[in-house]
Write the structure tokens for this entry.
Amino acid sequence: MNSFGNIFRISIFGESHGECVGITIDGCPAGLSLSAEDLLPDLERRKGGIQKGTTPRKEDDYPIFKSGIFNGKTTGFPITILFENNNTRSEDYQKQRDIPRPGHADWVAHQKFGGNEDYRGGGHFSARLTTGLVAAGVIAKKLMPQINITATIIEVGGEPDIEKGLQKAIDAKDSVGGIIECTVTGVPAGIGEPYFNSLESALAHIMFSIPAVKGIEFGAGFKAAKMFGSEHNDAIENMQGQTKTNYAGGIVGGISNGNNLVFRIAVKPTSSTPKEQTSLNWNTEQMEKFSVKGRHDLCVALRAPVIVEAATALVLVDMMLIEQKIKRVIEI
Amino acid sequence: MNSFGNIFRISIFGESHGECVGITIDGCPAGLSLSAEDLLPDLERRKGGIQKGTTPRKEDDYPIFKSGIFNGKTTGFPITILFENNNTRSEDYQKQRDIPRPGHADWVAHQKFGGNEDYRGGGHFSARLTTGLVAAGVIAKKLMPQINITATIIEVGGEPDIEKGLQKAIDAKDSVGGIIECTVTGVPAGIGEPYFNSLESALAHIMFSIPAVKGIEFGAGFKAAKMFGSEHNDAIENMQGQTKTNYAGGIVGGISNGNNLVFRIAVKPTSSTPKEQTSLNWNTEQMEKFSVKGRHDLCVALRAPVIVEAATALVLVDMMLIEQKIKRVIEI
Amino acid sequence: MNSFGNIFRISIFGESHGECVGITIDGCPAGLSLSAEDLLPDLERRKGGIQKGTTPRKEDDYPIFKSGIFNGKTTGFPITILFENNNTRSEDYQKQRDIPRPGHADWVAHQKFGGNEDYRGGGHFSARLTTGLVAAGVIAKKLMPQINITATIIEVGGEPDIEKGLQKAIDAKDSVGGIIECTVTGVPAGIGEPYFNSLESALAHIMFSIPAVKGIEFGAGFKAAKMFGSEHNDAIENMQGQTKTNYAGGIVGGISNGNNLVFRIAVKPTSSTPKEQTSLNWNTEQMEKFSVKGRHDLCVALRAPVIVEAATALVLVDMMLIEQKIKRVIEI
Amino acid sequence: MNSFGNIFRISIFGESHGECVGITIDGCPAGLSLSAEDLLPDLERRKGGIQKGTTPRKEDDYPIFKSGIFNGKTTGFPITILFENNNTRSEDYQKQRDIPRPGHADWVAHQKFGGNEDYRGGGHFSARLTTGLVAAGVIAKKLMPQINITATIIEVGGEPDIEKGLQKAIDAKDSVGGIIECTVTGVPAGIGEPYFNSLESALAHIMFSIPAVKGIEFGAGFKAAKMFGSEHNDAIENMQGQTKTNYAGGIVGGISNGNNLVFRIAVKPTSSTPKEQTSLNWNTEQMEKFSVKGRHDLCVALRAPVIVEAATALVLVDMMLIEQKIKRVIEI
């Protein structure tokens, strides 16, 4: 079940320390100009490494198109994009094989897949799989030039001052979480449905597919639970459906109402922390102290905004196609 | 797109003031004993009316099985259940047709469906559609006797003292929101997958299909964003995968880890409030003052726990079938 | 898995001798005028009874709309239609319970569903379930006024002279099969895709969902296997893509080419025959002679053309919506 | 829509003269031993070249695993397999760009994709895409060791004597079609469902996804239409459900009955024939004589049996997983 979407449908594959990670995008309209260069800026944002608190894996992350592009344009057939894994040092992981890392999926993966899982660097669980998401997100964004999606980190380690939050992590030599806010302008009214295909359902679905996300709220979100109805209700002000306030985050009855989409997601601190931790050695059946070796971000939330934007674009492009607001053959 | 699930697949239909609301459940294993009586307790909980702040619609909510049951057992074929609508007074709605109610889907529905929508009592948007969800939830729960799902309201109008929160609403003659917490025991390790079929993705997907839900968080949720990794990581203590703490809410890497599932959802205040409000009259194109007539709950969150439980059960039963932890023909 | 279609998605339910049979149609565009009267002519054709060789069950087959219609038009939400079962005499079936009828699904259903299946009158296997298909087919046809679908019976019991074929069955007091040909005009070029969403794949898929269908061929079909390429290839004659011959049956590379769709299906003789037969009594484990009691058509193929038309329409309407050749809100 | 299957789900990508063709297999159980060598025999059969009438493209067709295999076993995550395209000479195709080849998808592809399609060697329409199907088929077969699938060509150019049929084609310097029969032993009773998930529906669906297939029939198939019911009905002879005859081809009510599955498919003659043909030049809008250059099989049906087997295996493995007759973690 590594696919998402109805018409514009993505499928991810690959492992952190295998040959590559990649994505196939099925259902992309024909005629979209597309080159590797289009993808590089967002891929670079995902890679991180400029800000404090991120120590990027040394990878080119250069997208290799294997299908679906001809003469610089999409053909309407599946687009497969690979990203080679070069910077893989798996020995570190081998050593700690018997101690499931707290907060990681090591133990459950072992249970579920009967010991057949590729445990190196998190295998298929690795956030490296989001490389494909970001690539697909760029394509989705290009199909909706009128829509603008911006995700920014608004809190790190509990501090709205990002620098301060990062310093806290550096000082503590520990990983920290963060909160990301995403705002989308230009979404026409009428995208989404009540119930199972609500815009919130689809957005939440894909957001919780991003590793480390543990919460999402739309508009006033959890604060809405503390409000009176007369406060929370957004009054419509004009025939375009513009509302005075936007406590609903641009979605009523599961459907976009033409105002800005606004939602926030909570990113937990990376499980991988330089701190010494205690866990069960499943071989000796004893608790052991150990620390996770290797390269690690202190704050993965810093690299998440571009993934959140991509995921948002993937939901919107699929619904826009269903609503026939994007053509099957385009000229962009 | 009024369906949810892969193997155990539900489809809802109906309108608030049409003939009926209903649900079809496809993929239910054969051999499950099932009668209308099994469904009544949870249907009664959904109806509410005992607690302050709920004024139930006067309906029997008696489930009428139309297919899929033979000799008191499920046959393995689609189970269709109808709930007749008797208490429908649509005249009230007709009068206010030209003023889209703030916070409701009136305006977007009109845009999206070109004026063909059944606007009476919210039509297909109505929370009355959750009757079917609750019925399906009972069936799902019966298929998983070892799993216990309990949702409770933990905050109303910002007050953890529920009575106090309700009184606040009654005093203010205004609707209020609330927060619901759901705890699930007995879920085996290994349910869910990383990425698009993560347990969090599936649960969030269906929770945002419940009207008025605007936020969800798993385990520590938004608080996780303020924690250090060494704090948040749940250390595994024994060979059953039990963890000392449960900040992850029982899910790591998208997969259940055998500990309790814990999540909370934010329910906004009902848009329908007795308070006078202002909105645009789309006929006169002028702002108008008006108030919503008719029966309304002051706090819909009070009736939501049983819906949250049902929705949780629907996600779990589907994943349990995929993981072959429930047989296709059973003897219960 | 009782659903079919991607955007225009149908779900069937019900049993031959249960309360009703029915269908839910999800994804139908809003704004289509629709009444029970629209459905009656095709429902009447399905019921049969005028031609020799059909002895219709005495049912009104009057469609009861339970949802999705408001003010005589589709709302864009699920349309549920019920057909009550009145003419049910189940005692006959009870008697023969221990002898699985040759050619029927009695034995496999018993194996698969562990004895929980509703065996009365074929239960969910009954061709009575096609009532819903025919109803949905009318809706699909109304959405595509430019397309004309005509299925006719071209052979009965091996005789192209239908009357002669039927007389053969009557004389032999035995059931007979038949061949149905379906021709569709007005399908635009470009419907379908190569591989898994080929127009042939989708049409064949639904045709084999009709009880008693055992073969399908497109255009020249099995005869194509005996032809040379230079004979079989249809030469394009003008800029509209019209071809001189139509050996391809209007489909190349899985996609409609703008010429008429032409396909034929083989319908086997009904398993229920008045003739005495031999089968195993699974109680006594002995072979026994017996004959099937009750009302039976001698040639079910006679009633199949309207079902074939409906099934064709269901495939086309779904693909036309995907290709954006039908709007989401219409004025018909 | 380049995917097929519910649990065991395949997605194909690539073009005849692009970088590669490939497939991703999602939902494969963990623990299956798998190496490139396992795939080679069937890939070799697909390539052909030994028998008269096939002139294989000079490709290694060596499967390159990009994901989903670890320590020689499947991990339970997506398996992506690539086949590089080396033997691509696209100049030939460029020259004939303006003349849509009769019987090919050239004209409809141009219409549907607005001229963006990769027309070189048939692009995504090419039968080269079946390389991935064959690879996936081997994996499916390995998961069902108790099932034996054998497809053989039983007629070429109308001749049951295959050599004679091929000689006919060679003598005529023209392509010919053929008929393939597939027999499957070891399928347990209970696979499939009535209606949309019938075994016939699923098999027919995927068979018509194989290029050049224009007909399919199960058991007696089209001959069944000429039979009496008392002749066609297969009498059950023992408690294992074995039948005396097998006119149903092992499927009743859409469900396998434990007897051999038997079906035949009609393969049309390849559109590409050395013969001179006439078609419209869409540039000059004039009819023109031309002949298709390059390497072509005279009888593609010769290479189809292994594809038919693979497609059969893909249907069965998916249904066997749904019916829980294959475990999610295995030891093979």
